[in-house]
Known about the structure:
Number of strands: 3
Strand content: 25-35%
Strand order of the largest sheet: 1-2-3
Amino acid sequence: MINWIHQEEAFCEGSFKSNFFRDDENGNELRVGVKSAALKECAERCVEAFNNLSESVINEI
């Protein structure tokens, strides 16, 4: 789900397409960074959870 562009033990950066969030140009491709390679799986789970929010939850947000 995240396209990891930069991967090191101390920092990883990638991008993903969001079903909900938009950038300042109304695009759906966003970047994410984590301070440890060990957190990549957590970031993947977060992106998956955000992209699978129900319409009612999105409307409530």
